[in-house]
Design a protein that fits this description.
With 610 residues, this protein is an alpha/beta fold. Helices cover 45% and strands 10% of the residues. It is built from 26 helices and 13 strands. The strands form 4 sheets. It has a 5-stranded mixed sheet with strand order 1-5-3-4-2. Helix 1 crosses helix 2, helix 3 packs antiparallel against helix 4 and helix 4 crosses helix 6. The N and C termini lie far apart (70 Å).
Length: 610
């Protein structure tokens, strides 16, 4: 290393210095120190034309310039420097970054852009962390900030936005970020958790849809003004099914001309890994399909030279929210309704257990909501208007109709404007009855008939306490179901109403777990709707004991049950008895020698030799 002295007038600051902001007070202190004790540490520079460009030491250069402005030193004040003539742009930036961080901590936003530049040039996370003297986690957290919009970056540098809030804002699109900082400037106060909730907890609004709205057959919920931003899809699963199909079609459309098409599906998109294409440069398209359903498309992009391992490790923001739950609210409610009806029907065959439940209810003991007012359980209303009602529902309705006939209940006291009765169970539990007439009828019941009425009333009110959550606890409902030895597959068969609400990868897992894959063939040859229909037919044929299917295959299909349909519901990843000894077969790969399904327009499959 050779140190030489050159005039201050021949030194110039580098345009790409990683430090964009400097503490004015600290700069004043450094200038005072140099004036008193001289420059104790040389600058590192490189030749650039007739000048010398600073590689490291810009703070010292700024302090010297401050002293020149105050006439404390001459303009051509001699400065000790080390001249480096073999530095590339990347090496110069790396040295500047290391020097800045190790001597005085860079501002987070300056770190973010410096790290992004280094990683974009092919450096590894470990290399950047080691040379900068920080942890790998710090590098990953900082580089996420490089994807923020320019307005947010400026506010972070000015100290107007906290680091926690900035990290949360990485979960939003640039447009969402601008809207939120505008609200912050208007006086709203949001911390990092508030911003994270606002950006990831949005419901799918009509304005998010990129598919024709006429394809959606469900209902909407709108506020008083009913604009597209405040009108939401009630059937979230159906919205995502249509939105996923539209994103796939959009990607296919762009793939015809783009250099590449990427579809990102996490809340955070690492935009720092791309740059805008230069003129005549073949560019690609990135489609950001967020878990909220929002879609953002950016065209004219080129990938930076980020190593694959770095791209994978920095794909998620450090503050990214948890993935969407395995089951959405509507699916959980549907499964809980099935489970409740199954327990109700089984209670009809066990008077002793029904009386035990009744006594507990009358003593105000319940899991979630007490129904001692004899409110019908919501599972009955859930299936009342369905075309394909479960066998458990029809069994309960038939029993209720027989009892309505036996006690002579009529609707003659119902108001003319009252809504139609949804079933005999509702007639039986209607609040308006003639008590003395009902008393005379009940007095004439035998002990057996009275027990049957008591049993039916208990069954109609008992089911899963909270219909909108998976019941994984040691609840009364689960204890009773276990004691009754309720077998869900005796009451329910996996049908299209359930299967069409599963993702394609979940359907493929179901095909493997249930053994259906051995008959259906290659999963990749099916669309999601075709696979759901094929699985529904397979389960139905197995439930009907179709002799054309191998006995072992029928047994395996009839034993398959979603984890959430168990008592208690089993969370994802738990070991289940049916999985023992079947892992090898369930996870068998589709080889070139396997039969390949030929799918017709109606979704039927036939086996064709490969």
């Amino acid at each position: 290393m050779t140190i030489q002295t050159i005039p201050l007038t021949k030194i110039t600051a580098a345009e790409g210095n990683p430090r964009r902001s400097m503490d004015a007070t600290a700069l004043e202190g450094l200038a005072a120190s140099i004036l008193t004790d001289g420059l104790l540490q040389n600058l590192v520079v490189r030749k650039k034309g007739r000048k010398f460009e600073i590689v490291s030491g810009e703070r010292r250069y700024r302090a010297l310039s401050l002293l020149v402005e105050r006439n404390a030193i001459a303009k051509d004040h001699p400065v000790p420097v080390e001249v480096r003539g073999d530095l590339s742009e990347a090496d110069a930036l790396r040295l500047a970054t290391v020097e800045n961080i190790q001597r005085e901590q860079l501002a987070p936003m300056d770190e973010a852009e410096a790290f992004a530049t280094l990683l974009g040039a092919g450096a590894s996370l470990e290399d950047v962390a080691a040379k900068a003297g920080v942890s790998v986690l710090t590098v990953k957290r900082r580089v996420a900030l490089a994807s923020l919009c320019d307005e947010v970056k400026a506010l972070v540098r000015e100290g107007e936005i906290t680091l926690s809030a900035a990290e949360a804002l990485t979960l939003g699109t640039h447009d969402q970020q601008r809207v939120l900082i505008e609200r912050l400037e208007q006086g709203y106060h949001y911390d990092g958790d508030d911003l994270r909730h606002l950006l990831t907890g949005e419901k799918p609004a009509v304005s998010l849809a990129i598919f024709p709205l006429e394809q959606y057959e469900g209902s909407f919920t709108a506020d008083l003004f009913a604009d597209d931003d405040n009108t939401v899809f009630d059937d979230v699963e159906w919205f995502f099914t249509l939105q996923e199909a539209a994103v796939a079609a959009l990607a296919e459309h762009h793939a015809e001309n783009a250099a590449f098409v990427e579809v990102l599906t996490e809340s955070y998109a690492p935009w720092w890994q791309y740059r805008e294409a230069e003129e005549d440069e073949h560019s690609g398209v990135v489609i950001h399909f967020k878990p909220s359903g929002r879609v953002e498309v950016r065209e004219g992009l080129v990938r930076r030279d980020v190593s694959p391992s770095v791209a994978e490790e920095t794909a998620d923001a450090p503050t990214a929210p948890k993935e969407r739950p395995e089951y959405s609210g509507p699916v959980i409610r549907m499964m809980n309704a099935h489970k409740s009806l199954a327990v109700m029907e089984t209670l009809l065959t066990n008077p002793r257990k029904a009386k035990e439940v009744a006594v507990i209810s009358l003593l105000n003991g319940f899991d979630w909501t007490g129904r001692v007012r004899l409110d019908a359980h919501p599972a009955l209303a859930y299936f009342a208007g369905e075309d394909n009602q479960p066998t458990s529902y029809t069994a309960l309705e038939r029993e209720a109709q027989d009892m309505v006939t036996a006690i002579g209940v009529t609707d003659n006291r119902r108001q003319s404007y009252a809504r139609p009765v949804r079933g005999a169970w509702e007639t039986l539990l209607a609040e308006v009855k003639n008590p003395t007439a009902l008393y005379e009828v009940v007095q004439g019941f035998s002990d057996g008939e009275l027990d049957q009425l008591h049993l039916l009333l208990t069954a109609l009110t008992f089911g899963q306490g909270n219909m909108d959550a998976l019941d994984t606890a040691d609840s009364l409902f689960n204890r009773v179901a276990a004691d009754l030895d309720v077998s869900m597959r005796a009451h329910w068969t996996p049908d299209e109403a359930f299967l069409t609400r599963r993702r394609k990868d979940q359907l493929e897992a179901i095909a493997k777990e249930s053994g259906a894959i051995t008959r259906l063939g290659r999963m990749k040859d099916y669309s999601k709707s075709q696979l759901a229909a094929a699985l529904a037919r397979h389960f139905q044929r197995s439930a009907e004991d179709d002799a054309t299917l191998p006995e072992e295959l029928r047994k395996r299909a009839n034993a398959w049950l979603p984890d959430a349909m168990r008592f208690p519901a089993v969370t994802e990843g738990a070991d289940l008895p049916w999985q023992e000894g079947e892992a090898d077969e369930a996870n068998a790969d589709d080889t070139d020698g396997d039969p390949t399904p030929a799918v017709s327009g109606e979704g039927e499959t036939t086996q064709v030799a490969a």
